[in-house]
TrEMBL record:
This is Tellurium resistance protein TerD. Residues 1-188 form the TerD domain. It comes from the Bacteria. It holds the Pfam family TerD. Belongs to the CAPAB/TerDEXZ family. InterPro entries: Stress/Tellurium_Resist, TerD.
Length: 193
């Protein structure tokens, strides 16, 4: 079992694991019992960010519509439309040694698809978490349970991997946004239609 983090806590992934190359970021959630009349479809995404805190190009946004970064370093394993069942609902694979040099942070987000139309928000989502495990050994390295801090938000930044003095570290962020995916995209420099 990995380290359980609290909001704002940072931990090094590579310091105690020299040679670590491949990790999987698992994101999960449960939907509470309130019936909104339609199913919940939560979507995980990764934004590959430069020093500016923005993407350098549209392809630096990896999500259900762009499953693999051109470098091969970040790959979304696929869209889960219901969030049913135990464990990870969506996964993003990271090859740390293939991340382009200009990328200093990878932010992991979850948004609620069509939240406004469906009158849904993160206040109706329980047990949201992000965890990272070593793909080669299957060993869980860390887990961050977001808790029940959200009410009206339709998007959340769960956490981020970042480079610091040659080490890969993780920061448990847990901050919510209103405005869904469009708000996150605007924040990270992605143009949306």
């Amino acid at each position: 079992m990995g380290v359980c983090l609290t909001k704002g806590q940072k931990i090094s992934l590579t310091k105690g694991n020299p040679g670590l190359q491949k990790v999987v970021v698992g994101l999960g959630w449960d939907v509470n019992g309130f019936d909104t009349g339609s199913g919940f479809d939560l979507d995980a995404a990764a934004f590959l960010l430069t020093e500016s805190g923005k993407v350098s190009r549209q392809e630096d946004f990896v999500f259900y519509g762009n499953l693999k970064h051109p470098s091969g370093s970040v790959e979304h394993v696929g869209d889960n439309l219901t969030g049913a069942g135990e464990g990870d609902d969506e996964q993003i694979r990271i090859c740390l040694n293939q991340v382009p040099d200009n990328i200093v942070r990878i932010a992991f987000t979850v948004t609620i698809y069509d939240a406004e139309t469906r009158r849904q928000n993160f206040g109706q989502v329980n047990n949201a978490f992000i965890r990272i495990y070593n793909e080669e050994t299957g060993e869980e390295m860390l887990k961050y349970d977001l808790g029940e801090d959200f009410s009206i938000e339709t998007a959340a930044v769960f956490g981020e991997l970042y480079k610091n003095n040659g080490e890969w570290k993780f920061n448990a962020i847990g901050s919510g946004y209103q405005g869904g995916l469009a708000a996150l995209c605007a924040n990270y420099g992605i143009e949306v239609e």
